[in-house]
Each structure stands twice: as structure tokens, then as C-alpha cells.
Amino acid sequence: MQDPDNPEERPRRSRHILLKIDSWIDSTLWNAGFRSAEIWEDVTIFFRRFRVRGWKRFVFELSGEALTLGAAGSVLMLLLAQPAFEATKEDWRNRGDFAVTFTDRYGNVIGHRGVIHQNSVPIDELPDSLIKAVLATEDRRFFDHFGIDFIGLFRAMSENARAGEVVQGGSTLTQQLAKNLFLSNERSIDRKITEAFLALWLEANLSKKEILSTYLDRAYMGGGTFGAAAASQFYFGKNITDVNLAESAMLAGLFKAPAKYAPHVNLPAARARANEVLTNIVQSGLMTEGQVIAARRSPATIVDRNEQESPDFFLDWAFEEVQRLAARFHQHSLIVRTTIDMGIQKAAEDAVETSLREYGESFNAKQGAMVMLENGGAVRAMVGGRDYGESQFNRATRALRQPGSSFKVYTYAVAMESGMTPQTTIVDAPIYWGNWSPHNYANRYAGRVTLETAIAQSINTIPVRLAKDKLGIQPIRAMAKAMGIESPVRDDVTIPIGTSEVTVLDQATAYAVFPAGGYQSRRHGIAQILDYGGDVLYDFDRDEPPAKRVLSEKADFYMNQMLTRIPYFGTARKAALDNGILTGGKTGTTQAYRDAWFVGFTGNYTCAVWFGNDDYTSTNNMTGGSLPAMTFKRAMDYAHQGIVMRPIPGVENPAPPAKDTAKTAAAKPEDSIPQLIRPRMLSVESTRILKDLGEKLKSAPPLEAQKVASAG
After folding, report:
1. For the whole model, what pTM was predicted?
2. Transmembrane segments in this chain: where (predicted)?
């Protein structure tokens, strides 16, 4: 008999237990595998009952592949639809809840934004002729499709192929509404995909009548008007419910190209377009030729008005500012006094258009933008593109473009803050930062140069060497943000030479720090917001905090001393203003000549100018010192006529070298743009006296009735 307490027996017992466990695992796994095989065989036998052969098998195989591809396609469509889902998260119905009347800095009405100021008319009360004209021209199958019309798209493609050019669009009315409500005019595949999903979303959430009504209320109709009701009042001086067939046809013709066919701009073109609309009505079967013949013979006439063009790009931006500022007010019908100066605005528009008309083709540049600030932060002019009617995309506030060398000022500003001076010398030589190596223009290197010379000649290696060896990237990013760059600033080694995209408004805001003595520019476009009772709800001077210092006085002085050399000895000689007005600034040209910039300032104004192409194609070797500098000079020369000049801080000798200016002007007389002449205006002293008199009259007590009677 074995003794359980015997130490020699314990290992045998342990081994016996382990063998039992191993045996149980083996048998369990084998049984599980055997049972699984039996189950699989049963399943296979069961499904053999459904096996098909011959043509039926082909159908089932095709269906299976379709389901697989359909599932994958559904996932892909869901991913593509994400931008559309994001766009509809906002309260898009109330985007136009505000009704705002805008005035310029002097109180003159310059435009409206928000809900239609002529009350929106229910779709059932609109003239039948207007509905037929719009549907026949914009979307004949509107009540038959679900937001995307494949039949209409195929027809448009056929007509365009037959004509050899784009003569007919394929977008439905719902797609056009989606673009107006949520998207920009950018031409890209991504935008068209998002537009299609938004159209489907609108069709699912709105009735056909609601879609048509919203479209007629929100579309831009030229002349600064939005919606058919406002356009009817503007062009014909009558309510939308009273328009006749000829007027309906003219209104319906505006949706395609409001700037081109606006009757107050080109009445013959508007009437020709209206005649095309009448033809569309007949071809669609909505009316007969006999019903439209009277409208052909007696085309619409418009109200004769002295047209003052509305600064629409500025108003769009100002309206966004109003919505931000007035969100806390319960009043939504507002009068807003802006900072815009319509004289300077017109000069800025003329400068951009003249430059593009005279030099755009040779430089292969089709678009431009400009922002001008009066030193103190007031936006005096904003040009967001060449033609608002053709494209409402504001290139001054929304287009993110690489600034090139115009971004270098933030690196040099950090260098001045760190104790360097304009006379500090740095070696201009090839430099490597990881796998990246920037090159100078024409691959030329000058050896040891001063910072003053480096920024004037726009040497690329110097700001990169400063960032790598002495400053770092983070202080440069922080400086750009502090000075007013609101666009996201990249966090990589290439930003010292301007690879981080910014807007024109960003650059104007940041550069305005230099003539402000190193303080924030306090850029703003809204001076006051009032309700219709005259109560001031918001006042910039009263409600906004004072400017903070973002650049030390010494650093600001050094920067101004360097930047005021560039228009006379550097890359921006075509930017120097006339009449001895000291000018500072910096040029910028990006890789492959895609963007050309000049951002400059005087003691009175700061102005940023950009030229390029919406599709990012290269220009024809256009640099910041060419067309942008010339356009800057034209607009700024106008703005400085008849005003008292302010000095640029830190520059002891405000007079530019006359001989250099004259030599530059005489060097290439063809590279100049005719000067604009500013109308005569009150002097600063006269304006001050009149303002003081107005304030005294406001504060004076009212006269008593008895005294007035006795005086009479």
C-alpha cells in the first residue's frame, strides 16, 4: 500500500493530474472540431437545395457582386457625404434672420443684407408668369426629379457637345440653392459632390414649394439685391406681385449671370436675355408663342436711377461681423454705420480692375484682391475679386494663399525683439534643415549681409537661418498670431519664407501694427450698430478694449527703418508713393509664381494687394514688385490726396530720396497706371470745427416755446 505522505509519491500524483488535464483538452478540442464539421456539412447540405445552374446562376452571381459593390459604394458615399452633413448642422434657416441697412462712414446708405427688405411673398401669391419663366429657364423638370436630374444633365451635355461650348447647365434648381445656402463658387469635384448631397438633403427636408420660394428669396440678382422681391423693387419700382410677363422674363434671366445681364448696367443685354427666357417658356410648353408675342414686342423698362455701386464684398464680410456682434441683442432689424469710405473703395476697385485689364493677360493673372485700413484699424476699402456678379467668393477674407516673402516680417520682428538690429550681420549661404534646403532667387548668395539688406533684397536663406540657429519656429508663429494673423499658422520649418496660407485681410491687419507704433491695429469694419429707434446698441470706441502692445517700441522702430527702405532700394520700387510720401512695405512671390503680393503702409494707411488665379495656375513670372506694387501705388496715391500726413514711428527722415524715386519713375514709363484724382474735401481742421459744433448743438438744452415766440 502506498503511503500518501511519502514524498516520493507526490511527483507521480502531480504527473497523473496533468495527464488527465491534457487528455481532457485533447478530447474536447477533437469533439468540438468533429461537431463543427458535422454542423458545416449539415449547413452545406441544406443550402444545396438552393443551388442554381444555367442562366439562373449567372443572375445570382451578378446579384451577389452587386450587393458587395453596393455595400462598399454605400460606405464610400457616406464618407463623401460628411462635408454635407457638417454644413447642415448650423441653423441655416435663420442665417438671414437679421435685416441690416448699412451706411458708409459718413452715414450714406450703401446696401442691405439679411432677410428680404420687401417682405417675402408666399409662393402661391407670386405671378404665374414669374414661376413659369424661372422654371422654364432654370429647371424644367423641377417637380419631377429628386434634387439631381440625370435626364437634364444628359441633355445639357448633349447640347454642349453639339455647340462645342458650355451653352446649357446641368445643375438643378435645388443644387443651385444648395450652393447659394452652403457653398462657395469654387469649381472643384469636391464642391460638386457636396452640392449633390446637399441637394438630396434639401429635397428630403423641404417641400418643392419651399425650395422654390427659398431660391427666389436668396439668389443674388445684381445691383446689390438679393431675391426676386428686392430685385423687382430695385429695377422696376414695383411689388413682385405686380410684375408682368416681360418683367418676369427679365428677372428670370438674371439668375444665370446677374452682373452681365443686370438691366441698370446693360439694358440691351438684359432685354436680349429676357427674349431667350420667353423662347424657353414656349419651348417648354408652358405658354404659346401667341401668349408671349406682346412681351417680345414691348420689353420691360426699368426705373431710371443714378446708380451708386454697392461694395458687396465688404458688405458680405460686414454682415458676418454684425451677426457676431449683435447675437446678444434681441433686435434683428438694425442700422449699421460701417467704416467704409466710398471714395477710397471706388479707387481701390478701379485700381484692381485697371491693373487686370491692362496687364492681366500678359501676366496670366485673372483675379485680384485688396484691403486698405486707416491706421487706427478702420477698414476703408475691400476688393474681394474682379466681379461680384460673376463670383461672390471673397478673396480678401476667405481665400487662403501662400504669402511668400511678405511673411518674412514676422521672423524679422522676432529677431528685433530678441536684441538684434538692422545692422546685425548673418551669412547668406546654402542651408539645410533636415531634408529641406531653401534657395535664393537665381541661386545667388551674397555671403555676410546685414538684416537690413537681407529683407530689402528678399534673401530667403537669412530668415531660415535665423529661425534654425537663433529663434525657433514657435516664436515666429506666436508673433504672426499676436500681430493679427487669424488663419491657422503651420508648425513646420518652411514658414519663415511664407508657406503658411493667410488671407489678404490677415496681412493688412498684421502690417498695420508697424505704423501703429507696435500696438494692435484693432482692425474693424463696424463703427456703430443702431436699432430703428436710434438707440446705439454697439459702438466700437465705447465697447472694444484698447489696443495692446504686441511689438516693443525699439523693435517697431527697427522694423519701420528696414521696411521703408524696400520701396526705394529693394524689391518694391514701383510702390513708392508720389509727393514725397514715405512708404514702407514688403513684396511676396510664391513658388511657381502662383501668388504675387505687396503689403505696405504709410503713416496714414496700410494696404495689402494680391494677384493670382482661383485655380492656382501659375502667372507669367509676376512678382510682388510688379503688378501688386503698381496697384498699391495707384490706390494709395488717391487715398493720400488732401489729407494731413502722419509720420511713421521710428523713421527720423520722412523724405524719401528724390533722385531714386525719379529714376525709378523714368525707368519704365509703360509700367505705370494712370493716377486717380480725389475730389476736394474739407480740411481736418474744418471737419473738427464742424464736429465740435454738432456736439454742442446735441448737448444744448431745447429752447422754450415762449422765448421762440418772442424772438419771432
Report:
1. 0.69
2. 58-81
